[in-house]
Design a protein that fits this description.
Elements: E1 5-10, H1 14-17, H2 22-32, E2 36-41, H3 42-49, H4 51-64, E3 69-74, H5 83-92, E4 94-99, H6 102-113, E5 119-122, H7 127-133, E6 138-140, E7 160-165, H8 173-182, E8 188-190, H9 201-210, E9 211-216, H10 242-248, E10 253-256, E11 272-274, H11 277-289, H12 291-309, H13 311-323, H14 336-355, H15 359-372, H16 377-398, H17 400-406
Parallel strand pairs: 1-2, 1-3, 3-4, 4-5, 5-6, 7-8, 7-9, 9-10, 10-11
Length: about 425
């Protein structure tokens, strides 16, 4: 497959980029490995001009710019795009799709969209086998990040023995940290629901650099709180991107085990793992005593991260796979469950177009609801509410004085 002109469809929401570079870095990795690179914020454009105009504009852009490869970086569980539109794209270009958190959204969304893809990119090793069972070509890249941002800092003293950066309310993290405290192992914790609070990006990099041991947890969020979540997925242990972020900063990674994580870094040589709170405490004590061994693992983890998970090297390998691939005809299957989820998601855009008074675009979404006539009322309500609350948060972010005023009267907690 020859690649000359590349188009990426992704959504770089400014509220997310402040704290998470995964989409920004993903796009940059594609750009630096492309000849002629193009980008469209698909959620932004869809929100501006509506479904019909969006699809026409993208297809016209592909034709005018002679695009031969399209990458789509989907937000986790995102159902913005019509699967029939994706099928049309796959007839024109080599179509690559990236699914984040696919461990949680494979059944509801990802496996249906992936039918139109020529290649699927995944951050989880075991998930690729689920796609291959459906005869879908899948490649595990794990998470890829930019070394210009995730980096070693010069002459940085290791003044923090043990640290954790993340949301303390997720999974069983509070129990783990509590156990360490009860056993005289203090941990510096940063992030939501910690006493130190969230860090900005540069301070997070500083913590990774200054910590002798960086803890990572693999337990999932409460899936019942997600619109398309499934309670049984609370059992999932997820290979997150945090170990790569830490390793690119030259940090030592001590992570809770997740199936397949041994394919990310070699256990005992490039990072280490724990299976219980008792083992976590034991290994913290061990690596604090054995500085030389810890630093050897730290160095090898850093070298592996640069070699495999830095965006330039990581996407170079992806492009090599694409060049060796052949286009195949796609057969698309959809069922009532997918239709019900897709139709329910229209209410997210119904709310957006209603509040922005884009009545023509609003009618397009309503027509889609009546065309399929299958819907989950509870999910539709939650999508509608999500769009309203997003608008409130964006407004408060743009007007900090109003945000501070409103905080005196209301407290809103929403996970996006």
């Amino acid at each position: 497959m020859q690649i000359n002109n590349v188009l990426t469809l992704a959504h770089l929401h400014r509220l997310h980029i402040k704290h998470n570079r995964i989409f920004k870095d993903w796009c940059e990795g594609i750009r630096v490995n492309s000849g002629d690179y193009h980008f469209i914020d698909y959620v932004g454009l869809y929100s501006d001009i509506g479904k019909k105009a969006f699809e026409k504009q993208v297809e016209r852009y592909i034709e005018e710019k002679k695009i031969d490869c399209v990458f789509i970086a989907f937000y986790s569980g995102d159902l913005t795009l019509d699967i029939n539109f994706l099928e049309r794209l796959s007839e024109k270009v080599f179509l690559v799709m990236g699914f984040f958190d696919t461990e949680h959204f494979f059944e509801a969304v990802d496996r249906y969209y992936a039918q139109a893809a020529d290649l699927v990119l995944l951050p989880d090793y075991l998930s690729k086998f689920k796609y291959e069972l459906l005869n879908i070509n899948a490649l595990c890249t794990f998470s890829l990040f930019d070394k210009e941002y995730y980096r070693k800092l010069d002459a940085k003293d290791k003044s923090i023995d043990v640290s954790f950066v993340g949301d303390m309310a997720k999974g069983n993290r509070r129990e783990y940290i509590g156990y360490l405290s009860e056993n005289s192992i203090p941990v510096k914790c940063y992030g939501h629901n910690t006493e130190n609070g969230p860090l900005d990006f540069e301070k997070m990099i500083d913590v990774f650099n200054r910590s002798k041991i960086n803890i990572n947890f693999t337990g999932a969020v409460d899936n019942s709180s997600l619109i398309l979540g499934s309670g049984i997925n609370n059992r999932v242990k997820q290979s997150k991107g945090r170990p790569v972020e830490i390793a690119l900063c030259g940090g030592f990674v001590l992570t809770e085990y997740a199936p397949g994580i041994e394919n990310m870094f070699e256990i005992g040589k490039e990072m280490d793992v724990f299976y219980s709170a008792e083992e976590l405490a034991e290994k913290i004590r061990y690596y604090l005593r054995n500085e030389s061994e810890r630093e050897d693992i730290e160095r090898r983890g850093y070298e592996r991260a640069l070699r495999d998970y830095e965006i330039r090297a990581g996407f170079s390998k992806v492009f090599d796979v694409i060049r060796k691939s052949k286009k195949e005809k796609h057969e698309i299957f959809i069922d009532d469950d997918f239709i019900r989820n897709y139709t329910s998601c229209r209410f997210y855009y119904i709310a957006k177009f209603l509040t922005s008074l884009k009545l023509t675009n609003l009618l397009e979404e309503i027509k889609a609801v009546f065309r399929y006539r299958k819907i989950s009322l509870s999910k539709a309500y939650r999508y509608f509410l999500k769009a309203i609350l997003e608008r409130i948060f964006v407004f408060m972010d743009e007007h900090p004085d109003m945000r501070n005023y409103l905080r005196k009267f209301i407290r809103i907690k929403v996970r996006f």
